[in-house]
Amino acid sequence: MHNEEPSAPKVSVLMTLYDKGPFVEAAVRSVLEGTYADIEVLVVDDASTDDGPARVQAIGDPRVRLLRAARNGGRASAANRGYEAARGTYIAVLDADDLAAPERIAEQVAFMDTHPEVGVCGSAARSFGVYDAVSHWPLTDEECRGRMFFSDPVLYGTSMLRCSVLREHGLRSDPSWLLPAEDYLFLLKWAQHTGFANLSSVLTHYRIGEQNQRHGRDPVSDRAAVCRAVFTWFGISAGEEQLRLHLLLYKLSRVPITRADIVALDQWRIGLLRMNAQRGLFPPVHFARELQRLWSGVFHLAADAGVVPAWTHMMRCEEERGTRLLYLIKVTLRRWFGRAR
Predict the structure, then answer these.
(1) What is the dihedral of CA 46, 49, 54, 59, to 10 degrees?
(2) pLDDT tens-digit profile of 313-336?
(3) Structural domains counted in the chain
(4) Taking the model in full, what pTM does it have?
(5) Is residue 4, in this structure, part of any structural domain at all?
């Protein structure tokens, strides 16, 4: 007699691991104890220096597979090893410090089974740790595509990926990208071949703390690098001044914003709308809506800088002028009284 290969599971839960020993056991168990049993949990260790791999091995569940690495290659490289090793019809991504809701895998499988046009399905997420909040992502493919020039269409750590699309098109993360947001750039590749969706349920709990990749980093330089990559991906010509203006949409600036910045940013905004109307890169209604949301949010950055830039923004953005005027008065009085002390 010979030992037969175990049948492939419906879902490979992919978890990349690097020095998250205190959290990884809870992450793995949150999947194993969920309502969907036809799974493997594929933990791809990236040469951790702590006891994380040992904690995974000690779980002792035959559905858990641990892949070790002799040297650290970065998160994208580890993810690629996982994509290649996964045996499931679907890959469900879970970070090694996060937790899956008990019904997560079952709900996403049910959706993917009945929506073959969708290759990536995410969900809402609850942040916990340093702060608690619930974040929602756009539900439909058009809404996701309207957003994806500015940020991720799906929160990667909540996503379920269709393996047939991954295999057919050879989709992989860029192993040379060692900064945060390689998962966002990875998802842009999927947009060429399949649809996106998000479920409204909170199916993943996202831990906020010092273990996060972005913790302690410079958000301006990191976001600038991502924006350059996105501009290149979509063939959008932008110099350093346009990049600086674009970063204001994320409320990122190293110096106080000025009236001239507001005027120039408004022109950049109008130029993006015109570009999309000409090239049809993104669904126009949802693209315009997301751009308007970001442009509207710049008011608070302007108000922190002073009356003139805030007033300039108010005159160019008609939303909630009464509420914003009250906010500007409060911020200005607080600033004046602070100086008087």
Answers:
(1) -60
(2) 989 987 777 788 887 888 787 777
(3) 2
(4) 0.90
(5) no
